[in-house]
Amino acid sequence: MTVVVDASVALKWVLPEKGTRDADALLSQALIAPSFWLAECANALWKNVRIGKISAANASSLFQKLRRAPVAGMATDDDTAMALDLAIRLGHPIYDCLYLALALREDTYVVTADTRFVAAAASDSKMKKRVQLLGALSA
Questions:
Q1: In degrees, to the nearest 5, what angle opens at C-alpha 114 toward C-alphas 51 and 58?
Q2: What is the mean pLDDT of the chain?
């Protein structure tokens, strides 16, 4: 089954964080994400440089590893209207809702490490199973 992964999961492939093992386990599945997922990861790496957690050289190296990750970037321009509706309905940022809209289009679910995203989706009975917390998957 194809699974949508968000940047919070992808970053665990290159940064030693809680959930890294669970994120690594997803690498054996068919993975997709909105085409902007690498930009979102790059922004997080930049933030890590700004706070002194990693060096600029390390950020560049980690980004190159992410570029080689087996994630198919998918165009989501046609999903933006649905994502806006979801963002309004769930009270959650549209960027995350683009991952959810992609999952709905592909009839799958999103795996995330973002507990706020999971909670927002859980507030809607139709979306509850479409956003799964990394490490909480029963499959």
A1: 35
A2: 96
